Amino acid sequence: MQPKSIPLEQINIQDLFWSKHIDLVKNVIIPYQWEAMNDLIEDAESSHCIENFKIAAKEAEGAFYGAVFQDTDVAKWLEAVGFSLATHKDEALEKMADRVIETIGKAQCEDGYLNTYFTLKAPEDRWTDLCEGHELYTAGHMMEAAVAYYKGTGKKRFLEIVMKFADLICETFGSEAGKIHGYPGHQEVEIGLIKLYEVTGNQRYLEMAKYFIDTRGVGENYFLKEMARPGYQYIFPEFKDYDPRYSQSHLPVREQETAEGHAVRAVYMYCAMADLAKYCKDESLYKACMKLWDNIVTKRMYITGGIGSSGILERFTTDYDLPNEYNYSESCASIGLALFGLRMAQMTKDATFIDVVERALYNTVLAGIALDGKSFFYVNPLEVWPEACIHRTSKEHVKPIRQKWFGVACCPPNIARTLASLGQYIYTVEERTLFVQLFISNDTCIPLENENIQVQLTTCFPQNNSYTLHIAKPNAPIKVALRVPDYAETYKVMVNGEEAPYAVEKGYAYILIDAESEINVSFLAPARWIYANPSVRADVGKVALQRGPLVYCLEEKDNGDNLSSLYVDTTKAIEEMPSANWKGIVELKVSGKRVETESWDKAKLYSTHKPKMVDTTLQAIPYPYWNNRGVGEMLVWMKTFN
User: What pTM was computed for the model?
Assistant: First the structure.
């Protein structure tokens, strides 16, 4: 048995830091995204995705509108609804979701096929363009949504719809004669099939997921064969001169050692590989996952947990290529990284994976949504000069302000489902061992071997670096594995008022509990200067600020314009202070110098005149909160003169 997450319905989160984000899901984000998907948000990009289903269901008339994967916005929204209903019952929301599900059921073809783009726009092209068509990707998100909704409500209608679709996929694809010997252009169906297997026990779904992973990149590339067909029409013009690395189909998955191509595709595939390594006891898949994870986190990941540095094709590039001002770091990619890391932590019982999960969740994922829940970043750069974010330039993908919606809106509902399911990251359990992963206040009923036990975690983290864990009396001794984060100093554990000895293994401090206990954990995690590997050319001669899991940034609001003219003094103390802007947040002040521009001859672009530097104090805020006070410059990596 391997560790697994706690069912969401057994977790009640009430946390100083996270509740303001999580409460937005049910109170703001889900209603707002419902309006967006129904094109009711003024001045927002059109979605039409609900209308597409109504048209396919013959509840309305019209034509398909949107991207080939437009259905997935509805799927991820329903998944967020399912997660939310698991923890907060809402009769009106459930009825609304049930109506959407009935429309989806009516839109389903007789044989089980479900995809409004191909049903309405190109019915003759089913399964003929796996590279670009996103049919299997869309199916996977539908499967995930149906499982979440079933778990959250106990209702099987949506599950039955997607099982019919999954059965069709199993009948259509495979190694047998007469079946399509292909695999998805955008990985996701593998995760969906595995989740269907988990709730139904149907081995066929697990075997289908395994087929898609096992056959990928083997022999002649399937996508290149598709594109070589006479009369092939590209859905996406940028796919001409297609490089199989883009879809991780350049090699069999077990032979891949570097994270290549589209970052979201990559980490979704790695999630499925980790799941299959677990369920199929496949050591070769496990080893491949370890190599790919190591390549990402040691050579291709931003300090914020962002991945996929290229604004062209949303992809990984090469080791240490981590530019700040025009990087991509799609929100969905960091969500996928967190999901991959959670699986690896559960498989290995190694807390270093959760260090990365925490980094991604606290920084890039949170940065993707405004504090009011009504606008979003798709791209998450580490340096922004708004005036330079010009259309048809190298920075055209960088938005200096969060957007109300996107024509391709995969990130907003993905962030919604992530916040709604945050509880899955807090604990994992294995027989009679409880792993404490994230420090988030909650009351939870923990299902241990042969009993359920009540646990309460109380904390003001990350403002304060301590927490209290109250564990009810167990029927038999249990192990508690307390994560020791990579930024922790002077780690201390008290049990019932007395300092407790512990053994650290793979980043967890293990203690034994055999009675009702109050565990107090404390550590130091002061604000620190962080340096990048010198091979990261964009950050040589620069430093960043980090306190606990939070990365900090400078904003024009606090520090004036032309942030690139600022230098920090790393020999001076970093001042920590409670934020006047956000409850439960610490802001930082540091000493530095500013290149003085007033004396510069404005008629000259270049000069032999050396600019003057003047002393200044710089104020830094957590990166995820940038751009919540208006448009302005932002900077994570700062120049240093010492």
Answer: 0.97
